[in-house]
């Protein structure tokens, strides 16, 4: 397997990042209310530790993880819990989800127990994992997977190799780029903490070739730390190079098994933003109560990156950017390739909110009329999972689960590259996104049907065997007594 | 304030089927121009007749199938079919030939199977094959290329139109004077008559590389095809595999017996080898779809073209080779699914 093959697929698309990276990171304005959805991370919703009318302090834990995959939540401000009720959430496409609503008293009084650990090397790797969990740290690349859960499932003999993902390949998003420019030392600190927690032998920080300033800042921070375990790897700025599986292929020249995890090949991947959040938690005692959010697009007066407390309404961030322009037409959370389209801005920033695009019709032109597929195969040329989207599309109508499974529908990462290049303007990613759960369910049903069939066959065999034994015994009994028996 | 929502991705490249087809048409222009230079304006009349028939047939089929007119009439695919078919017909062929062939291609080969994107066979080649088996005499009556010593029947535009529409030449000319077999046809006939290859190729319709005139037309086709490659409208797999297979077959047989078999250069520069490789076999709708599948598909067309030309009953084999390989596409596609990321080889 060659590196060339692994780099196959993907797109070089206009990055649209210059507008938001002109100014340094600024602090978003504080607001009166903060809405903290309990299910803003992957896995199970957190369980509230507070009730309405409780006073809370800044950085105080307000919800604890449910058993299994889940995460802690902390108050971003000091004030009073005014409600625990369903509120519209961006990660639920604007549908209401149970949230803790906190009224800000504006005094930012800190929670006493949030003490910093001065030296993480003095605690054991297990304690380090537990400590990271208590900081409410989740993956900040967009999926918001609880970091401690990922670390625990990645532990292996000799420790996994650590990969820090600074390849921010989606158009418009620049929060990682400005983070690497301005807070490279946090990233390196977090990298060392992660190396310790994982007993990992080395750390590779991947960064794209089109962000020279961020590269220089990161190099300087790595040189300053003088830690021989940490190296920087520059990767080509191809979308979706920053996808976990694609980045692992690019950096390590190895593929994650389709039914496995990076840990299966001894790699654990974390976003650079996550590493910086870990540094702030371990060094400064600040749990994950704020993150950098890119606000950009032709639909706001001024684009930029904002240090934003979790729970801040989108509308407040938009106001910080000078409000909407007349050209504002669509609101996206995330990038233009995989982001979520939202109907209104009365939504809180969550841990997964890396970017808000206020798009004009110029930014995101409406799709053209859908035509039939002409099998040109442009889609298969750009598919980073090496699929044949044109064939998947064919086998969707009518739904042919055997062929869809053979052609790897479940291996689709929904990156949207096929959509992007399709001359027939077919919304392939959307179709695949909808079809994947259907196919998974059908395959599950197949599997359980197979299992039932196997059980049935086994039962018949067992009954037949018992029957045969029974007959043999009967025959033995009927035998004349003078014949010898065994 | 509410905003409209849509599924991701939110930005796409604004490519279109119409753009793809338009570029294919532009890339065919050099071929058409040189064809007119060597064989007169007949081709232009055939293209106009064919294109009109194609659009009318398309509109009729869309109406019968209750499909919108505008997007499908504007996508240009019917025009491409018409031009490719017209390029295969003798320039002075009677009007009903191009009209019936094109109508058959659009109505039966394309729309009966579900229209754009759903036709398993290349419509232009179906139309040509139907004409070839139904009216072989008319289809093999080619004109002598310009620049030959024999009496060159120069027809004016008006005479050309009149000849195509009425089926009879101006009174000053006879069919014998203006027709000539194609080089591939002539070669086959001469060899059958027991001539050696050198004798067979001594006739004035043979040029330096292949057929006189044809060699230049084919070079123009090559230029158009390279432009399509450069613009990424087509990819290299099918043309390279098809031409490669022709070269391998022709070289092998030429090395075994140069007296009986024409060499690779002749095969590349005569007949429809290059038109087939860059414009016909590359029709993605009826071709295999993975890279590996396209290599097999192209190579199959190349081998079949050579076999039909050399040992079959027709002088050129591209059309039948393409149709036969169209037939094999589902099989090829089934066994050439690429390895998926994260799956074992």
UniProtKB/TrEMBL annotation, chain A:
<dbReference type="InterPro" id="IPR026902">
    <property type="entry name" value="RnfC_N"/>
</dbReference>
<dbReference type="InterPro" id="IPR037225">
    <property type="entry name" value="Nuo51_FMN-bd_sf"/>
</dbReference>
<keyword id="KW-0249">Electron transport</keyword>
<keyword id="KW-0472">Membrane</keyword>
<dbReference type="Pfam" id="PF12838">
    <property type="entry name" value="Fer4_7"/>
</dbReference>
<dbReference type="InterPro" id="IPR011538">
    <property type="entry name" value="Nuo51_FMN-bd"/>
</dbReference>
<feature type="binding site">
    <location>
        <position position="376"/>
    </location>
    <ligand>
        <name>[4Fe-4S] cluster 1</name>
    </ligand>
</feature>
<dbReference type="InterPro" id="IPR017896">
    <property type="entry name" value="4Fe4S_Fe-S-bd"/>
</dbReference>
<feature type="binding site">
    <location>
        <position position="415"/>
    </location>
    <ligand>
        <name>[4Fe-4S] cluster 2</name>
    </ligand>
</feature>
<keyword id="KW-1278">Translocase</keyword>
<feature type="binding site">
    <location>
        <position position="373"/>
    </location>
    <ligand>
        <name>[4Fe-4S] cluster 1</name>
    </ligand>
</feature>
<keyword id="KW-1003">Cell membrane</keyword>
<dbReference type="Pfam" id="PF01512">
    <property type="entry name" value="Complex1_51K"/>
</dbReference>
<keyword id="KW-0479">Metal-binding</keyword>
<protein>
    <recommendedName>
        <fullName>Ion-translocating oxidoreductase complex subunit C</fullName>
        <ecNumber>7.-.-.-</ecNumber>
    </recommendedName>
</protein>
<keyword id="KW-0677">Repeat</keyword>
<feature type="binding site">
    <location>
        <position position="422"/>
    </location>
    <ligand>
        <name>[4Fe-4S] cluster 1</name>
    </ligand>
</feature>
<feature type="binding site">
    <location>
        <position position="379"/>
    </location>
    <ligand>
        <name>[4Fe-4S] cluster 1</name>
    </ligand>
</feature>
<keyword id="KW-0813">Transport</keyword>
<keyword id="KW-0004">4Fe-4S</keyword>
<feature type="binding site">
    <location>
        <position position="418"/>
    </location>
    <ligand>
        <name>[4Fe-4S] cluster 2</name>
    </ligand>
</feature>
<dbReference type="InterPro" id="IPR017900">
    <property type="entry name" value="4Fe4S_Fe_S_CS"/>
</dbReference>
UniProtKB/TrEMBL annotation, chain B:
<keyword id="KW-0285">Flavoprotein</keyword>
<feature type="transmembrane region" description="Helical">
    <location>
        <begin position="77"/>
        <end position="109"/>
    </location>
</feature>
<feature type="transmembrane region" description="Helical">
    <location>
        <begin position="294"/>
        <end position="312"/>
    </location>
</feature>
<dbReference type="GO" id="GO:0022900">
    <property type="term" value="P:electron transport chain"/>
</dbReference>
<keyword id="KW-0288">FMN</keyword>
<feature type="transmembrane region" description="Helical">
    <location>
        <begin position="121"/>
        <end position="140"/>
    </location>
</feature>
<feature type="transmembrane region" description="Helical">
    <location>
        <begin position="236"/>
        <end position="256"/>
    </location>
</feature>
<keyword id="KW-0249">Electron transport</keyword>
<keyword id="KW-1278">Translocase</keyword>
<dbReference type="Pfam" id="PF03116">
    <property type="entry name" value="NQR2_RnfD_RnfE"/>
</dbReference>
<feature type="modified residue" description="FMN phosphoryl threonine">
    <location>
        <position position="182"/>
    </location>
</feature>
<keyword id="KW-1003">Cell membrane</keyword>
<keyword id="KW-0997">Cell inner membrane</keyword>
<dbReference type="InterPro" id="IPR004338">
    <property type="entry name" value="NqrB/RnfD"/>
</dbReference>
<keyword id="KW-0812">Transmembrane</keyword>
<dbReference type="InterPro" id="IPR011303">
    <property type="entry name" value="RnfD_bac"/>
</dbReference>
<comment type="function">
    <text>Part of a membrane-bound complex that couples electron transfer with translocation of ions across the membrane.</text>
</comment>
<feature type="transmembrane region" description="Helical">
    <location>
        <begin position="262"/>
        <end position="282"/>
    </location>
</feature>
<keyword id="KW-0472">Membrane</keyword>
<keyword id="KW-0813">Transport</keyword>
<comment type="subunit">
    <text>The complex is composed of six subunits: RnfA, RnfB, RnfC, RnfD, RnfE and RnfG.</text>
</comment>
<protein>
    <recommendedName>
        <fullName>Ion-translocating oxidoreductase complex subunit D</fullName>
        <ecNumber>7.-.-.-</ecNumber>
    </recommendedName>
</protein>
